[in-house]
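retry 2 of 3: previous attempt timed out while embedding protoporphyrin IX containing FE. Reduced batch size to 1 and resubmitted. Inputs unchanged:
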Amino acid sequence: MTETLLVVYPWAKALHVIAVISWMAGLLYLPRLFIYHCESEVGSAQSDTFKVMEDKLSRMIMWPAMIATLFFGLIMMAIPGTPGYIVHAGYWLWLKLLFVAGLVLAHFSMIRWRDDFSNDRNERPQRFFRIVNEVPTLLMVGIVICVVVKPF
Ligand code: HEM
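retry 2 succeeded.
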């Protein structure tokens, strides 16, 4: 059984990193759409186009990619004898999970803001979304340093 799990591990990691790239693409692109959406008239054809783009990006890319990232990450944490095994992993994994919790919070916040735009009730200024757009990048940098360097 352990041999099988050790064969599964690199596959789980590969699928994990693929899902991470897709999820990050959505977390970085959706706030950009919000920034441009702020410039379009409520009810205009341009605003309707942004609503469709925001809806498809979140439903068809961000949700499946987040679920796959978490699923394959949790699989790796459950395999004994591997660097990611939760029982023996260093503090790097706990700090990483803290940063990941921040990304999940950012994801749910973006879904709520998307709903505000789709119901024409967004009141947040463009500047707010420019600042928000930096948060996933900073968290991603922290996550990748934790998991690749494993500093502690
Ligand atoms: C609950 C969510 C997550 C869990 C449980 C998790 C867990 C793990 C584990 C156990 C590994 C294997 C570590 C190793 O073998 O050295 C790993 C690899 C990796 N994770 Fe995650 N992860 C999660 C989310 C993320 C996120 C959100 C990102 C990026 C933004 C990320 C980026 C990576 C990368 C780049 C690797 C490959 C590291 C390497 O090959 O050295 N993970 N993850």
